């Protein structure tokens, strides 16, 4: 058996998913900036005919960011970190290597076809689950292949104990597998009744049941794509980058099981003030508030990992990204439960405060952590030093400014909307029309569009830095050493 000291890790699959994370990140954020600008300046809807309208581009934006950028980042960081924490190289198993590369190529082709289908208006109109049934089948194949590769590596590992990051990656795999299958159960209309196109289908659920199953998935897409695997990343990359041990391994396990038991049942808070039974709405609110505990447990554990080493914030821009990501995670996981309280939700529901909440999590937590992880991986995968740390610093401040502008403008816009929609005169008549609210909110929509421009600018800086690191930065004769806590 090959000794650990002589172990050479194979990063070929991690590199492939790194490329797609950069590509899809740029495309998804660029489209997001365009549709933000369309809300502020409606004439931009007509730039590309029907294919460039908000209604066509919005699902493209959400799915490319979720299933393109984020999932590529998850796969890239998994295939990098799993080898290291399991003490096994993918090159040791031709079968696992074949499965992982097959997963990538099916994923790449499937992602392109799926994106085109949304541009053509082929959708089943479910949030975070727009793809029609043939594409859903391809997604299942991709996910099963990842599971085979994951458990294959676990099966041949040299390290007996499973580090906490692997627990979170396994939860990501199992959670998405279960929930995606249940939510996307559909009947293809053409093959059953001979009507519609071959792509068209109808859900196996009806009415309120369909809504409940949809938001069981929809909320847990946030749980098992935007939260669980990103926690896996920070539990690996923050200690590695800082040279600090995780503050409390017991707290990491406690938070893990808390997330698993609580997060699954909070989805009905998306259906407050609807025809869903009142007890289900209350259950969603209660579980959402309880969710603060495991979420903050993870975030506090991450921040306390830097105890006594806060000076690294001034020395290492990647630590800046990771610490601020943890801070945005705390903010977002407090804000969400607040919005799930019925009295608050009565004002927040359907307002711009909701996308404000989503984006302080996605831009500040998810994207910051993925970019920091890829920056950490690059010198070790490509054996070249980071092209420019000054560029990372500039990117950090530009994107941090963008996130703050985004969520503050949307908080103000959302609360303004909610209050104007509820305002009545002395006779009980509504004081404002819908167009009155649109007029008042225009400056905040313009600020959001500006925030998008700034964030995309930062991402272009990230992509440029990564590409220069891969291709023309100074070659390294040995892997960068982790910083010693005593240094």
TrEMBL record:
Tell me which residues bind heme b 1; low-spin. Answer: 61, 359
Q: Name one GO cellular component term.
A: plasma membrane
Among Gene3D superfamilies, the record links this protein to:
Cytochrome c oxidase-like, subunit I domain
Q: What is its main location?
A: membrane
Task: Give the transmembrane region(s).
Answer: 16-40, 60-81, 102-123, 135-154, 161-182, 215-238, 245-266, 286-306, 318-334, 362-382, 403-424, 444-464
Task: Quote the record's binding site residues for Cu cation.
Answer: 219, 269-270
Kindly give the Pfam families that the UniProt entry links to this protein: COX1 (PF00115)
Q: Name one GO biological process term.
A: electron transport coupled proton transport
Q: Does the keyword Heme apply?
A: yes
GO molecular function terms here?
Answer: cytochrome-c oxidase activity; heme binding; metal ion binding
What kind of membrane protein is this, topologically?
Multi-pass membrane protein
Q: In which pathway does it act?
A: Energy metabolism; oxidative phosphorylation
> What does the record give as cofactor?
Cu(2+); heme; heme b
Query: What is the protein's name according to its record?
Result: cytochrome-c oxidase
Q: What is the lineage of its organism?
A: Bacteria, Pseudomonadati, Campylobacterota, Epsilonproteobacteria, Campylobacterales
């Amino acid at each position: 058996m090959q000794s650990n000291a002589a172990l050479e890790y194979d990063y070929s699959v991690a590199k492939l998913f790194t490329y797609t994370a950069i590509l899809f990140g740029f495309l998804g954020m660029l489209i997001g900036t365009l549709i933000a600008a369309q809300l502020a300046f409606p004439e931009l809807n007509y730039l590309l005919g029907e294919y460039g309208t908000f209604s066509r581009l919005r699902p493209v934006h959400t799915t490319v960011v979720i299933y393109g950028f984020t999932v590529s980042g998850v796969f890239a960081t998994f295939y990098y970190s799993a080898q290291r924490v399991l003490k096994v190289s993918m090159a040791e198993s031709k079968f696992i290597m074949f499965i992982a590369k097959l997963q990538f190529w099916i994923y790449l082709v499937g992602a392109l076809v799926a994106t085109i289908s949304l541009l053509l208006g082929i959708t089943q109109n479910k949030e975070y689950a727009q793809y029609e049934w043939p594409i859903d089948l391809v997604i299942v194949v991709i996910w099963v292949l990842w599971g085979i590769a994951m458990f294959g590596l676990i099966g041949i590992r040299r390290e007996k104990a499973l580090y906490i990051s692997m627990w979170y990656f396994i939860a990501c795999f199992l959670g998405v597998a279960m929930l995606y299958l249940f939510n996307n159960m559909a009947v293809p209309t053409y093959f059953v009744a001979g009507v519609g196109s071959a792509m068209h289908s109808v859900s196996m659920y009806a009415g309120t049941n369909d809504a409940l199953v949809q938001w069981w998935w929809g909320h847990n897409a946030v749980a098992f794509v935007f939260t669980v695997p990103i926690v896996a990343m920070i539990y690996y990359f923050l200690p590695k980058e800082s040279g600090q041990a995780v503050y409390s391994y017991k707290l990491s396990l406690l938070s893990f099981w808390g997330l698993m038991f609580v997060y699954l049942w909070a989805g009905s808070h998306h259906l407050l003030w609807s025809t869903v039974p009142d007890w289900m709405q209350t259950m969603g609110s209660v579980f959402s508030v309880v969710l603060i505990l495991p979420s903050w447990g993870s975030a506090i554990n991450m921040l306390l990992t830097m105890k006594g080493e806060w000076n690294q914030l001034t020395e290492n821009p990647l630590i800046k990204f990771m610490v601020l990501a943890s801070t945005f995670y705390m903010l977002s996981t407090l804000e969400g439960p607040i919005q799930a309280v019925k009295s608050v939700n009565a004002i927040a529901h359907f307002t711009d405060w909701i996308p404000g909440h989503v984006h302080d999590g996605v831009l500040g937590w998810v994207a910051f952590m993925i970019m920091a992880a890829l920056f950490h991986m690059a010198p070790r995968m490509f054996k070249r030093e980071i092209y420019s740390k000054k560029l990372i610093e500039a990117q950090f401040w530009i994107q941090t400014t963008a996130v703050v502008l985004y969520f503050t403008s949307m908080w103000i816009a959302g609360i303004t909307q909610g209050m104007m929609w509820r305002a009545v005169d002395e006779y009980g008549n509504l004081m404002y029309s819908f167009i009155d609210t649109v007029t008042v909110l225009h400056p905040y929509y313009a600020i959001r569009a500006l925030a998008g421009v700034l964030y995309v600018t930062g991402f272009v800086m990230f992509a440029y830095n990564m590409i220069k690191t891969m291709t023309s930065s100074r070659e390294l004769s040995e892997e960068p050493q982790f910083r010693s806590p005593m240094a």
